[in-house]
Design brief:
Elements: E1 21-24, H1 43-51, E2 58-67, E3 72-81, E4 90-96, H2 107-115, E5 119-123, H3 140-144, H4 149-172, E6 179-189, H5 191-200, E7 221-227, E8 246-253, H6 264-273, E9 279-288, H7 308-327, H8 331-338, E10 351-353
Parallel strand pairs: 4-5, 4-6, 6-7, 7-8, 8-9
Antiparallel strand pairs: 1-2, 2-3, 3-5, 9-10
Length: 355
């Protein structure tokens, strides 16, 4: 399991919890009719539409999902487009935070994607979450206590349980009927990106009677977005059999923040190791590790770097197109990604590789 853990890194950006159910502004005006949220045909106009707030208002619901066999409770922050009823099924995107994070992580992505018509569930993984540091002196050694093989496996099982529980809630709870767990997108940052790659079909060593092999593969997951992943040379082959499209997002300042030797090159290497027809790379010059967490900033970051707001704008927009193409079979979104569409959002030193 040491190889599976070799590329994990710290997520910063932790936000405070909020009320159990509340609205967020995902757009303006009355709710659109089904099928009306269509982006324009011009690539630049389409880029602007993906980057702009979506047409839906968003409800945010905090849940506690129990898993009795593991004596474990998984906190979840669920964002759904309004109205969320059975008349229109909305693909579910699951987001996994990094080491030391919480269900508050990834808010910059979740609110935007939900405003564009996706249900987004932010999972919190007990044992590798904010409990590592909250209420005590912050130290790197404290965080590393959550960077273990056991926590890695627990995260993987959290994803399976969350998909099952959210599917059951969608069938029984008012206001959640739009959530479609038959076609899921998986996203995560840092340790959450490692979790994401496992769910997407990375080869893993044997654990608890499972494997070796792609035993963590979740068949309902149809696409994955890995933010700040990492892989060492000796583990590249473990990604060769990943069976779903994977978008890798990283940048030139996406360095090691937890003492595991990660570099921008080892993060980009994830893209290089994936099957050519099932990969894409978003490379942002000047973007550091924490910018890809989708949360708040932390002290001690490089003084000369790309602004979080700019990184968030690009990742949110490309993410909308990626989920539309992979989870909704949106042909124009796929054509935009396969061509030069994302370049309308990028600077001269950035890179977009559609495969």
């Amino acid at each position: 399991m040491r190889r599976a853990l070799s590329g994990l890194a710290l997520v910063g950006a932790l936000a405070a919890g909020c009320a159990s159910v509340r609205p967020e502004s995902g757009g303006r005006g009355p709710p659109p009719s089904p099928g009306s949220e269509v982006a324009p045909s011009d690539p630049a106009d389409r880029a602007a539409a993906y980057a702009a707030p979506g047409p839906f208002e968003v409800d945010t619901i905090d849940l506690e999902l129990d898993d009795p066999p593991r004596t474990r409770t998984i906190p979840v922050r669920l964002r759904v487009p309004r109205p969320c009823d059975a008349s229109v099924r909305r693909p579910l995107v699951l987001f996994s935070h990094g080491l030391g994070g919480s269900r508050s992580g990834g808010a910059a992505w979740g609110a935007h994607w939900a405003g564009h018509g996706f249900a987004v569930a932010h999972l919190q993984h007990p044992g590798s979450d904010e409990s590592l540091w909250r209420g005590r002196a912050f130290a790197l050694e404290t965080l590393r206590a959550g960077l273990t093989a056991a926590q890695y496996v627990a995260r993987i099982d959290d994803v399976r349980v969350a998909a099952e529980r959210l599917g059951a809630l969608a069938a029984t709870r008012s206001g959640l009927a739009c959530v479609d767990v038959t076609r899921i997108g998986m996203a995560g940052h840092s340790f959450g990106a490692a979790t994401t790659l496992a769910i997407a079909g990375q080869w893993l060593p044997a654990s608890e009677g499972r494997g070796p092999g792609p035993w963590a593969r979740e068949p309902r997951v149809a696409a994955a977005l890995a933010l700040s992943p990492s892989v060492r040379d000796e583990a590249r082959r473990t990604l060769a059999g990943v069976g779903v499209p994977v978008l890798v997002a990283t940048g030139s300042l996406d360095d090691d923040v937890v003492g595991n030797g990660a570099t921008p090159e080892t993060r980009r290497a994830v893209y290089e190791a994936l099957p050519p027809q099932r990969r894409a790379l978003l490379w942002l010059d000047g973007a550091d590790h924490f910018a890809f967490s989708g949360g708040e900033s932390v002290p001690g970051r490089a003084s000369v770097r790309r602004s979080d707001a700019e990184v968030h704008r690009v990742v949110r927009a490309v993410g909308v197109a990626f989920w539309r193409a992979t989870l909704q079979d949106d042909a124009p979104a796929r054509a935009w990604l396969d061509g030069d569409g994302p370049r309308a959002l990028l600077g001269p030193a950035d890179a977009w590789r559609p495969r």
